[in-house]
Amino acid sequence: MLRCMLRAKLHKATVTESNIAYEGSLTVDEALLAASGIKPYEQVMISNLNNGERFETYVIPGKENSGVICLNGPTARKGTVGDVIIIFSYGYFKEEDIKDFSPRIIKLDEKNRALE
User: Is 25 assigned a catalytic role?
Assistant: First the structure.
């Protein structure tokens, strides 16, 4: 049996941009993707702490060390600039791999810099 487990999380990212005209996705600073292990075009779940919205999309890399977190396309309707979100990535694991696994959690400050 495989279990779906939290694999990575960007905790308390601040939305810096919103682009309704883009075809869709979530732009994330490439340095944050590398730190979390989230890959470009990977599916993610987003939870908006300001309005309670929860939605899925995929990530695209943004300029490295820019702090960019941009809601693109339809996701731009799920929040506004300044909202605080949590970005979750899940993975499927074999039962025997779970006991030695812990997710990569990156806590962010208000400028989307890693606190750790």
Answer: yes
